[in-house]
Amino acid sequence: TTMIHFILLQNKQGKTRISKWYSPFEHEEKRKLESEIHRILIRRPPKFCHFIEFRKYTLVYRRYAGLYFTLCIDPKDNELSYLESIHLFVECLDRYFGSVCELDLVFGFYKVFALIDEFYLAGEIQETSKKTILDRMAQLEEVEKRS
């Protein structure tokens, strides 16, 4: 089956700010993957394409300001659809946080995970409507305010 194996949001220094794992990896293997992927991305010229064959997977990434958004997918998957989903995710982050920055990811990590969960379910794209996703996030905010 085709799926997302993991999502990484890393800064230029290699610090992983958000990671979501849909496939089972040992803790040590996760750290190695994060480090290895960062080394690959940081050395990659900006004009190169956003797809990288990596081990038995394909990495789809985009850089926004100082952050790398990376999805690890199956090689048979549609890379362009995942590249677009990264862009849509960043647009939603921007709209939700009001011009998102790295500190929003650090201090609002639980909201970022909620947003990821609205987008992706069990390693597959679940929702592609920005309005639907942001409406759901607003509903979660309302529930949070009432508690």
TrEMBL record:
Any Pfam family matching the protein: Clat_adaptor_s
Sorted UniProt keywords: Cell membrane, Coated pit, Endocytosis, Membrane, Protein transport, Transport
InterPro entries the record matches: AP_complex_ssu (IPR016635), AP_mu_sigma_su (IPR022775), APS2 (IPR027156), Clathrin_sm-chain_CS (IPR000804), Longin-like_dom_sf (IPR011012)
Keyword Aminoacyl-tRNA synthetase in record: no
Predominant place of localization: membrane
Bilayer topology annotation: Peripheral membrane protein
Domain of life: Eukaryota
UniProt KW Transport keyword: yes
GO-annotated molecular function: clathrin adaptor activity
SUPFAM superfamilies, per the entry: SNARE-like
Subcellular location: Cell membrane; Membrane, Coated pit
A Gene Ontology cellular-component term: AP-2 adaptor complex
Domain AP complex mu/sigma subunit positions: 3-143
A biological process term (GO) from this entry: clathrin-dependent endocytosis
Family statement: Belongs to the adaptor complexes small subunit family.
Name of the protein in its database record: AP complex subunit sigma
